[in-house]
Design goal:
This protein is 32% helix and 29% strand. It is α+β, with helices and mostly antiparallel strands.
């Protein structure tokens, strides 16, 4: 039985709810977990990640963490992605959008939740991709 997009939303939301929650690291302004991401691949596998916010820009987004987990399993085709901060759905930043495209150009077809009622393809959220002439 295949799940529709709304059912997949519920599955991904449940996955993010399990791991989201800001916690302090070595200093009060060094934190992790304030944003959580869950993605499902075209093979139906779910991967999750949390953000890491530390000094000097060496942290990373929750999307990067989930994508890294996916890549460890040698997958690169993202079907759908959901990121939340507390109870609010947030779209991936430009860096994360570009990463999705660069690991697999077919990910322009990735469905991304930008709110509980809005689902867009990465293609719409990343219309002017870096180095697009090099990809042709």
């Amino acid at each position: 039985m295949e799940l529709n997009d709304l059912q997949l939303f519920d599955v991904l939301k449940e996955g993010t709810k399990k791991i989201v929650g800001r916690f302090e690291l070595s200093k009060s302004d060094f934190t992790a977990g304030s944003v959580a991401t869950a993605l499902i691949t075209n093979k139906g596998n779910i991967y999750t990640g949390i953000c890491l916010e530390v000094a000097c820009g060496i942290g990373f987004c929750a999307e990067h963490a989930a994508i890294a987990e996916m890549l460890k399993h040698r997958e690169k085709d993202i079907y759908m992605l959901l990121s939340i901060k507390e109870d609010m759905i947030i779209p991936p930043c430009g860096r994360c959008r570009e990463l999705m495209f660069q690991i697999n150009t077919n990910n322009v077809n990735t469905k991304i939740w930008v709110s509980e009622n809005e689902l867009f393809l990465l293609d719409k959220l990343l219309p002017e991709r870096w180095g697009t002439t090099a990809w042709k």
